[in-house]
Amino acid sequence: MAQAHRGGEETYSVGEVARLAAVTVRALHHYDEIALLRPSMRTPAGYRRYTRDDLLRLQRIRLFRALDFSLDDVRALLDAPDAELRTALVSQRAALLAKLEETQSLVTIIDRVLDGTPDTREEGPEMPVDELFKDFRNDEFAREAEERWGSTAHGRNPSAAPARTTSTTGR
To answer: 21 is in which domain, residue-wise?
Structure first.
């Protein structure tokens, strides 16, 4: 249970924080050991006590860890100026929204396949050919091709591929 300390401010034990934040006590101890999240105070017996500010920092740690940032990157972001932190969050938000849109497109494709599959419907129109690839995003495939094969003329524009020539000598 939270206790009042330091001018009436509530503080929380390591166990309370672990339950609130859905982390292990060991993780909190580790964050303390590596100076990522230090409790604002300790009791005379040495027990860790966390304040609301500590909990807000832990919330950010949890957020960045959920986004697959390393602990070193989390530390750098938390210690960075507010503008840099904001830029990182805006960037991550945009990436998540793009992923959400991509996921929604895939759900739509699954629904269309299910609606057009004879095994899942007794009757119904087949999906028109011009709609088969309607919800696939070309930029996703272009990015994957770029990652695999680089930015060659073949990857950028298939029509830019060099024309095949035939030998006039028959060789």
So the answer is: 3-79
